[in-house]
């Protein structure tokens, strides 16, 4: 956890809307180190997704400084520094799973052989080997979301940005995917930014939990998790886990109380 | 059984049609009888209205017989053969359909790409469809004859003008469908391409075009039927002697509704076949594109 992969200093973002300006992000200061797993948690409208989109250069700060790997977000995007996993899997129904995963590789101009090798590797990484020739509709929702993670991993970006990737899945599937995501993080050493509104999910996954509040969207607490990197599911019953969850909940409540 | 409702509707249509034929053709039968001073029995009324030379409404069997005669009784190269006339109409339907479809797709791409083009062209496209085709068809015929496009292209001027009229009718549904189809990808999908730093062209080829395919085929089915109408309308004012439209014109000029109706049915059958062909191609393509079997 040495060099800052993501560094935000006084980042503000104001949307101009028909009802006047809306402050989506206010004075966001955040440093994410290499290999960290950071969760952004907060109620709707707290700007957690906006912050992630700003990191991805899908939105642009109206004030403050934001660097990704020492570059501006736009430069980082052009250098393909990150893979982005959206809330919906967003697989193209006319492409097989393998061809869906190959989509960014085609766009980035990898050779056919290289595409094949990478697709096979990430399919194995998300435990979907043997499903490459299936079409998306032949897979369950959880499997589709795994395929979309594989697609984000295929081009070896060292940052993975995930916007409530498991939000639409049921809890049992979500638990399993959380476990697999941790394993994947351990194996690949990627830096992961993860947006969620589930407290247990945030605490279970993260090395750092960023608690956010709405109106204006801002960070109210940053919690460095003392939990070990190796986390079986039943770590959620330990005192350390429950203490962190409690602090997150308090942070969320505090954010609400100043309305 | 799915056939049940289909047969019921068909039967009801036939009953209505026969009833209407008796009713509409009866006046002539009564006139004749009054002139000859004869009496009309019910049986006589029926048999006469079913077999007039120039009925107001030819009953189904007369139309079917004329259609069958037109299709089978003459060599297919004969001017009396409906196969020959159908073929003439088919050629201009296809050429107009191809031209119109490409034009529609081309304009849709431009409109989706450029706001200026949308503002500048879309209103004209809509206006173009409010002008009755029967009004504009003769002008197209006159213009393309006097400009002699056909001579440059080594085609007959009649084919060129019919192609233009058919394309004029068929480009519009393709344009509208493709604009909608090319815009069907949602913001998330577009954002995703942005995260790959994809170019505009890559976005078109990998996302917008494939996403628009279902819309394209829906429009092509409307478009090919519109092309056929355009080709037939194009045959009316040309003084054409070939094609189903010319056949209909001859039938009405000679006061022979049976010929008109037979040509009408030939056109309907042709339209049905054309739509089936488009649908077959659609099935092939969507199967390859992984649509749920």
Considering residues with a beta carbon less than 8 A from a beta carbon on another chain, report the largest interface and each chain's count: A-B, 27 and 20 residues
Q: Helical content of chain B, roughly?
A: over 70%
The assembly state of the depicted protein chains is heterodimer
Low-confidence stretches of chain A: none
Order of helix and strand elements from N to C terminus of chain B? HHHHHHHHHHHH
Radius of gyration of chain B: 24 Å
The dominant shape of chain A is globular
Architecture of the largest domain in chain B in CATH? Orthogonal Bundle
- Find the structural class of chain A using helix and strand composition: alpha/beta
Helix content estimate of chain A: 25-40%
Number of strands of chain B: 0
- Main sheet record of chain B: none
Give unreliable regions of chain B as ranges. none
Global shape of chain B: elongated
Number of domains of chain B: 2
What separation lies between the terminal Cα atoms of chain B?
Answer: 22 Å
Walk me through what this model shows.
The complex is a heterodimer of chains A (259) and B (293). By secondary structure, chain A is of the alpha/beta class. Chain A has a domain at 1-79 and 198-259: Rossmann fold (3-Layer(aba) Sandwich). Helix content of chain A is 37%, strand content 26%. Chain A has eight helices and nine strands. Chain A has helices spanning 48-55, 73-78, 97-108, 112-125, 141-153, 171-188, 199-205, 239-257; strands at 4-17, 20-33, 37-41, 63-68, 82-85, 159-163, 191-196, 208-213, 218-224. In chain A, strands 5-6-7-3-8-9 form a six-stranded mixed sheet, sandwiched between helices. Chain A has a three-stranded antiparallel sheet with strand order 2-1-4, covered by helices on one side. In chain A, a hairpin with a 4-residue loop joins strand 8 (208-213) and strand 9. Chain B is mainly α and 293 residues long. In chain B, helix 4 packs antiparallel against helix 5, helix 8 (157-182) runs antiparallel to helix 10 and helix 11 runs antiparallel to helix 12 (257-288). The longest helix of chain B is centred in the C-terminal third of the chain and has 36 residues, at 200-235. The mean pLDDT of chain B is 89. The interface between A and B is medium-sized, with 27 and 20 residues.
